[in-house]
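Reviewer comment 2.1 asked that we show a complete input and output for one of the modelled complexes. We chose the FE2/S2 (inorganic) cluster case, as it is the one discussed in the main text.
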Amino acid sequence: MPNKNTLPNKERMKIARTRMPELAPDVRNKSFEEVNLGLCAEAAKTESTRCIACSRPGCVQKCPVGVKIREVVDLVYAGDFLGAAAKLREDNSLPAITGRVCPQENQCEGGCLLGKKGESVAIGNLERFVADYERLSGQLGLPVNAPSTGKSVAIVGSGPAGLSAAGDLIQKGHRVRVFEALHEIGGVLLYGIPEFRLPKEIVRGEVENLRKMGVEFETNVVVGKSVTIDELMRDEHYDAVFVATGAGLPIFLGVPGEHLNGVYSSNEFLTRVNLMRAYKFPEYDEPVYDCRDKDVIVVGGGNTAMDAVRTAKRLGAKTATLVYRRSAQEMPARAEEVKHAREEGVQFRMLTNPLEFLGDEKGWLTGARCISMELGEPDASGRRSPVAIPGSEHVLPANMAIIGVGTTANPLIQSTTPDLATTPRRYIQADPESLRTSKRGVFAGGDIVTGSATVILAMGAGRKAAASIHEYLTTGEWETKAATKA
Amino acid sequence: MYKILEARSVGFKIKQFVIQAPRIARKQQAGQFIILRLHDRGERIPLTIKSSDPEAGTVTIAAQAIGKTTSLLNCLEAGDYIKDIVGPLGHPSEIKKFGTVAIIAGSVGTAMALPTANALRKAGNHVIFIEGARNTEMVVFEDEVRAASNETYIMTDDGSYGEKGLVTKKLNDLVAEGRKIDFVLAVGPVPMMRAVAQVTTPLGIKTMVSLNSIMVDGTGMCGGCRVLIGKNAMFACVDGPEFDASLVNFELLMQRNAMYRDKEAESLKLFEENKEKELAQIRAQFPKQEAQRA
Ligand SMILES: Cc1cc2nc3c(=O)[nH]c(=O)nc-3n(C[C@H](O)[C@H](O)[C@H](O)COP(=O)(O)OP(=O)(O)OC[C@H]3O[C@@H](n4cnc5c(N)ncnc54)[C@H](O)[C@@H]3O)c2cc1C
Ligand code: FES
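Response of the prediction step:
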């Protein structure tokens, strides 16, 4: 490799981590423009200089899909940004997206040796940089597809799992058609994660590339209702089906008053704002609760809750408060989002749990009766579980409340595909390696198998499924690798 | 894009459309609905399916112009397109032999009740159809209603057609005459469905109502359509749209349906001021050669 980094490690470690340029907090909390502006080439190169080139890089070990990060960083150092992007793409088909949304602090950056003493290499920012560089260069070399195999694959769901499977399968020469229930392609990337964190243009760009490679998309098809899996295989002659329908069913708290006007699931709120662009009402027709000068609380501590509370702030909420029953350390949201939210003026009310929503005589929300919590013993997830403090009930004023405490499996496919084995919690059972289900020719992966997880894991599952589907279509051999009924 | 093959006014501000939508036509069963989005900036709204023709690949829907989207829809003609239609959604109606059934429908709700009435009649039931409307101009699909039922009663609020009075008056009259009714389906405005439930619940007549809550996705993903059935929160789009009337919390449904009243009024007003411009804008999005052929 030319341009090898010859700086002694001691010197490398003296270089401070490059800061991601951002929109100012008081500008961005009124706008849906992307918060992070991206590194420039110079900054990316400087950042790559910091890597101390471990012989057994912890970053690669901690990447859920094993991206060859060290080699990527070396290529950035050498100024070969397109080469770096190509290297990334060997293991990750959606780098511009994961560079923005991966919880790097628990993954690659969490494994970086520099992070033990100081700050880790900003791997996520470098990933984002090379992916954007490639995209903006217009030199994304689309791979050449293998000659047609005459086989076709139906993919159900167009989130990261479905999209990455589609990209790999089309290259192997299969015909690929993606069925999506909504009117636009992208899954959570489109309807869930807001514009200010992941511009929709990037998602559309990825979809456009797949289209150019020959992937067919059919929107407005709810598999299980518009057509069943059996009909896809029998009447429309698909040789294999990949179910990647995500974990889209919202969980409510089940407390009194949850039906008051002004109480939303995070899915509904974010879908209205992101997918339906309700923030542009009345130019766009779909309405959403008018947050201007109102008190908004959001219940939860994950990315979804963080996205909802920052969206409410942007829609003009007087107060936008995150209510979470554990403490800040336990919040599963990405560290960067928590930081951004604080800077934008989001209030954090930790160790607080709503018991009831209160309303006026017309049925509009006026507040939430909450109880304070303290942390007790660690629970099954290893986090210290919250315990209510007797006598600590209090009322938080609120005109709008958004419940972002998680989602679960949507049962539409499972209930209309009788021979598809499911777990007790209604997720689809799939063999962890082959992603084969109990039904011949049907594979499943992403959140519909694991429960809500991450974009990178869903992307990885899509690629694993593609490899396994290709193997099945080539050998015609099923049984040995199928999921066994639990 | 989904092509409109036929568009016909069938009553005051009520229009019927035959639309090319082969997947939906193939699968539709009585009681199910669609969600449509008219154009790129459009909202998603649920509408009932009146009938479908699997061979021709068409579905027939009927809509009354109330808000912006239904008003815009009612400006569309044969040869125009609808951007997105998804369906068929929701569970089909339960079809079996009950004995004597009363189908009670208010105005445009008749469109949704018709396929179920037909299916129930085919299943050997004696079908009493009570259609209610504000006045003669709002009475729709009378011929089809008569064809689908053994006994037909048309009720108008002002007595300008059929008999004067509410649908529940007729229902009460029938009960008072000692008619044995084994099953009731009511489809229409929420107060009408509630009134029916108030008559039939004390009598222990099994009654289903088709709930029209506000929806976004129609697949169980948002929970915006949630309704209270007894003590349970249910999603009208995937658990319904039909529910046991004796368990439905109608007050809550009305409360939630009023959630966007101000926004809806604002949107409608803007539309009425810019009708021609808006229509031209959405027609500009239609597929080009197809539009010429039409
Ligand atoms: C608001 C929010 C923020 C998040 N932030 C992050 C983050 O910062 N970082 C991160 O790594 N992860 C994040 N996640 C999690 C991540 O988005 C998911 O883990 C990931 O998208 C799962 O991908 P998937 O392909 O399995 O499913 P999804 O992305 O859920 O896609 C499933 C698709 O299938 C469609 N579908 C469902 N049922 C049917 C059917 N019957 N027929 C046809 N289509 C169907 C759905 O409409 C959807 O488009 C976030 C999630 C949410 C909700
Ligand atoms: S409309 Fe979204 S869940 Fe029913």
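The mean pLDDT of chain B is 93. We note this here for comparison with the apo prediction described in Section 3.2.
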